[in-house]
Design brief:
Elements (H helix, E strand, L loop, with lengths): L1 H19 L11 H4 L1 H41 L3 H20 L6 H20 L2 E4 L11 E7 L9 E6 L1 E4 L2 E4 L1 E6 L16
Helix pairs in contact: 4-5
C-alpha cells in the first residue's frame, strides 16, 4: 500500500509537467488532401484563366465573322448600285424627250416613249430604285441640292418650290440628290445652300 501510494504522486507530477510545462510542439498535418490543396488551387486558377482567354478569343472570332457577314450582305445588296447610277442620265433623257414632244402633233411617238420609260421605271423600282420629287417639302441637305432661290407668296423659307432634277434612292441609300429650287426669306437675303435666285 505504501509503495503504491508513493508512485501515484510521481505519476501525477509527471503528467502535470506535460500539461503545464514547455509548450507543445506544432502538430504536422499528415492528411494528403490538405497537403495537395495548394497545387490543386493553383492549377484550377490557371485553367480558369485559360478558359477566360479562350472565351474572349471565341467572342472576338464571332465578332469578326459577323462583321464579314454584314460586309458581304451589304456588297450583295448594293452590287447593282453602279449600274443603276449609270442609268439615271438615261431616265433624265426620257423625261426631257417626253416633255419636249408636243401633245397633239407627236402624240403617238410620245405615247410610245412614255410606255418604254414607264416600263423601265417599273423594272428599276422592282430592284429598289425610288425617285424623289420633294416639291413642298422642307429642304434637307442630306437629300437635296439647292440650285437656286425663289419667292412664292405664303410659302415658308426653306420650302422646296421646284425640282430641277429628280433625286433617287436605291434600296434606302441616296443615289443622287435632288436638284431643287428653294423658297428664300422675305427680306431677299440668300438662305444657306442656295446658289442663286430665280426670277
Amino acid at each position: 500500500m505504501t509503495g503504491k501510494a508513493r508512485g501515484e504522486p510521481a505519476k501525477q507530477r509527471s503528467s502535470h509537467r506535460g500539461e503545464g510545462g514547455a509548450p507543445d510542439a506544432p502538430q504536422v498535418d499528415t492528411d494528403p488532401m490538405t497537403q495537395e490543396a495548394g497545387p490543386e488551387t493553383a492549377e484550377i486558377a490557371r485553367l480558369k484563366a485559360r478558359e477566360d482567354e479562350l472565351l474572349r478569343a471565341l467572342a472576338e472570332q464571332q465578332n469578326v465573322l459577323r462583321r464579314r457577314r454584314q460586309e458581304m450582305d451589304a456588297s450583295l445588296r448594293y452590287a447593282q448600285e453602279d449600274l443603276v447610277r449609270d442609268l439615271l442620265p438615261v431616265l433624265d433623257d426620257f423625261e426631257r424627250a417626253i416633255q419636249a414632244m408636243k401633245p397633239a402633233a407627236d402624240e403617238p411617238i410620245r405615247a410610245g416613249v412614255s410606255l418604254v420609260y414607264d416600263r423601265l421605271m417599273r423594272v428599276l423600282a422592282q430592284q429598289g430604285l425610288e425617285a424623289m420629287s420633294p416639291v413642298g417639302e422642307v429642304f434637307d441637305p442630306a437629300l437635296h441640292d439647292a440650285m437656286a432661290e425663289g419667292q412664292e407668296p405664303g410659302i415658308a423659307p426653306g420650302t422646296i418650290l421646284e425640282v430641277a432634277l429628280p433625286g433617287y434612292r436605291f434600296r434606302g441609300r441616296v443615289l443622287r440628290h435632288a436638284k431643287v429650287v428653294v423658297a428664300g426669306p422675305a427680306t431677299g437675303e440668300s438662305s444657306p445652300g442656295a446658289t442663286g435666285k430665280v426670277s
